[in-house]
Please model this.
Amino acid sequence: MKLRSLVALNGLLGVPGGIAVFIWFMAIPLIWLDARFIAAGDPLPFWLAISTDTARSLLSTIASAAITTLSMVYSIMLVVFTLAAGNIAPRLLQRFSRDRVNQITAGLLGGTFLYSLSVLRATGPDLHPEFSIAIAFALAAMSVLQVIRFVHSVSRSVTIDAEVAKISEQLERQVNALLAETDNGANGFDEDSLDTVVRARESGYVTMLDETRLLRLASDHGTSIAVRVAPGDFVLAGQDLAVAGFDDGDEDAQAAVISAIALQPYRGAVDDIRFSIRILLEIALRALSPGVNDSFTAVTCADRIAAALVKPVSEGLRGELRCDHEGVARLKIPGLSLEDLFNMTLHPLRQAARGNILMLEHLGVVLNSLYAIAGSDAKALIRAHGKALLETARAGDPIGSDLEFLRRRLAFEIEG
Model:
C-alpha cells in the first residue's frame, strides 16, 4: 500500500527511478555475457564491429547527451507545467507528475546515462563488450524517440481542452466504479454491534481505500467493518477511521485496517473522486472569474462533468455495503449519492455563472440532456436543479427574452 501510494503521488521519483535502476542493472549481465562469450572467428557485422577508442568515444557521447537531455526535460516540465498550472489550475501539477510519458522519459534518459557509464568503465584493451555497446546505441535511439513523444505530450498538456478531457476520462472511470449493484445481505449488517474503534495514527487526506483487503479481513475474522471516512476526507490523528467487531486487543487486525486506509499529506490519488471534481470545478470557476472571463472553457468543463454523470443518472449508484462470496454483508463504505455528485458539480457552476447568460443557458442544455436519459429518481433531482437555475438567472436581472430562452431550454422544468 505504501509503495503504491509513493508511485501514485510522487511519480517523478518512484517510477523514473525504478526504470533508471532497471536499465542500469541490465549492464551487469550484458557485460558478463560479453566477457564470457568473446566473439571469435568470422568478422563481426558492421553494426557490432568497432574499435576500442571509437567505443569509448561513443559511450562518452551517449552518456553526456543523456544527462544533458535529462536536465533539459526536467527544466521544460517545471517551467511549462508551472505556467500551465498558473493559467489553468495550480493542482494540475500533481497530475503532471503522474503522467506516464514524463515518467518514462526521465527514467529512460537516466537509465541510458547510468548504463553507458557502466559499459564505458568496463571497456578497455582486455574487454571489448560489442553487444553491450550495441544495446547502448539502441537505448540512445529509443531516448531520441521518447523525447519527441515527450515534446508532443507537453504541447497537449498545456491545451486546456485536452487536459479537461483527460481529467474527465479519469472522473468517468471513478464514477462508473460506483454504479448500482445488488447489496445481498443488506439487512444483516448491524453497525451498532461493532464496538472496536480503529483510530488514525497520523493526520492526512484519505487517498485510497483497499476494499478488497478490508472485506477479506472482515471475512477472515467472521465479523464486519464499517469505515467512517471516504477518499478525499481530511483525518486528524486520533480520529475514528472505522469500527469493527474483532477483539479490542487485536492489534494486528487494527493495524491491517489502518494500512488499508492510506493517508497522505495532500490529495491527488486516482481513487479520489472529489479531487477530480474539484480540479474541473477549479478550471471552470477560474474561467468564469472577471479576471479571466473565458466562458467557453467553463462550458467545456460543464460538458465533461455531464459526461461523467451519464451512467449514474441512467443506472443509479451502488449502496454502501459490500458482501463476501457467500452474500454476507461484511463491509460498509461511505459512498457518494447521486445528489452529492449533483450538488458538488452543478451548484458551484450555477452560483458562479450568475449574470452570465451564456453559461446559464448551457447549464440548461446540460440539465435537459441528463433529464432525457434519467431514471425516475434522478428526474426529480434534475427538476430541482432546473428550478434553482431559473432562480439564479432571475437574480442576475436578465432581459425577458433571455429568461424565456432559458426557460425553453428547461422544458422538463415546466412539465414538472
The CA atoms of residues 287 and 294 lie 5 Å apart.
